[in-house]
Design brief:
Elements lengths: L2 H9 L3 H18 L8 E3 L2 E3 L3 E3 L10 H5 L5 E7 L12 E4 L4 E4 L8 H8 L7 E6 L10 H12 L5 E5 L14 H22 L4 E6 L5 H14 L3 E4 L20 E4 L3 H15 L5 E4 L5 H10 L3 E4 L1 H6 L2 H12 L7 E2 L2
Parallel strand pairs: 1-14, 3-4, 3-13, 4-7, 7-8, 8-9, 9-10, 10-12, 12-13
Antiparallel strand pairs: 1-2, 5-6, 6-11
């Protein structure tokens, strides 16, 4: 079935119902997916088959790993996951703005909890690099947040290649406060110390990346870059969704609370990547996320300084064919695929 027809059927459904249906459809789509062209890249000490990954938020509970990997992604970032199960915010919590190719979500880190997540993940074969986005439970105060992240890291450690520390979801009250220089200066060393203990225990390394918001002022981004360089985080994911509505204010659904993703996020996420790239001078690899709806958008992120890109909303509007389009466009743009970027 052409994705244009599938999209028409999916868009006739409630957005969250359509989201779940699309995940089931991915298994069928994977059977017919074109094999992506070779475009290897080494980032954070990991060998990716190609630089195009799935962003966190699509497969929150690690229930569709093999079918999503079959679409040609170089990596899957699953989750977000929290230590204990939590339902997230009440429905409706997902909204489309088709005219702007945008989505608003206020899921609120709905999670099956890390134990069930690990159980789900262990059922699948490992066909590409696996990352997991982790966060704190809603009721955990920020002063104890690192305990939640450490618990997730410990339980996931032997099952994944990298962990993304989500301190930037706009849908958990107070979570973005963890992006401050003061908070990160205490948080990242704790997480690295925990990782070192687990590395010694298990004899393998799991990379640590930090996911930040697109709504930061330039001085705040420079502060995060300084902490990241000092503490030698393995990567930065730029960016999460935005709370800005500047580019969608003409649409009534823009009044819904939550994080905005899709085409209106492209420029702000690329801006963050450019600032980070300038500050980090290639010392820490960047993963570009936000508003990638074409191969040219993916190349723009790499030209701004990213080493990898991730897709989410673009898949909703463009379908699985976007994966190969991005890989082919990146390859044809002669991206430096053989250089080891990070660790």
């Amino acid at each position: 079935m052409p994705y244009s027809l599938a999209r028409a059927l999916l868009f006739a459904l409630d957005p969250e119902t359509a989201h779940n249906a699309a995940l089931k459809f991915s298994g069928v789509a994977g059977l017919f997916a074109q094999q992506p062209p070779p475009c290897p890249v080494r980032v954070m000490g990991l060998d990716f088959a190609n630089p195009v990954g799935l962003a966190a938020g699509l497969d929150k509970h690690a229930e569709h790993v093999d079918s999503l990997a079959a679409l040609g992604f170089g990596c899957l970032e699953l989750g977000g996951v929290t230590p204990r199960p939590q339902p997230g915010n009440p429905r409706p919590r997902l909204f489309r703005i088709p005219e702007a190719r945008a989505i608003i979500n206020r899921y609120g880190l709905n999670s099956v909890g890390v134990d069930q997540f690990v159980s789900n993940l262990s059922r699948f074969s490992k066909k590409c690099i696996i990352g997991v986005n982790i966060g704190k439970n809603k009721e955990t105060p920020n002063e104890n947040a690192v305990d939640d992240y450490e618990m997730c890291l410990e339980k996931l450690y032997t099952h994944v290649d990298y962990i993304t520390l989500n301190v930037s979801s706009p849908n958990t009250i107070g979570l973005r406060d963890l992006q401050s220089v003061e908070a990160l200066s205490a948080f990242i060393p704790r997480m690295k110390a925990k990782r070192e203990k687990l590395r010694d225990q298990h004899g393998r390394n799991v990379a640590l990346a930090l996911k930040i918001a697109p709504d930061l002022e330039e001085a705040e981004i420079r502060g995060i870059a300084a902490v990241a360089r000092r503490e030698r985080i393995d990567g930065i994911v730029a960016t999460n969704t935005t709370v800005s509505r500047d580019l969608v204010m003409q649409y009534p659904v823009s009044r819904e609370q939550g994080g905005l993703s899709g085409a209106p996020l492209r420029e702000s996420s690329t801006r963050v990547i450019r600032i980070l790239s300038r500050e980090l001078k290639g010392e820490i690899p960047l993963i570009g996320v936000g508003g990638i709806l074409s191969g040219a958008d993916a190349v723009e992120k790499l030209d701004a300084g990213a080493s990898l890109v991730q897709l989410y909303s673009g898949l909703v509007f463009r379908g699985p064919g976007l994966v190969n389009e991005c890989i082919e466009t990146i390859r044809d743009a002669h991206r430096p695929a053989s250089r080891d970027q990070g660790r």
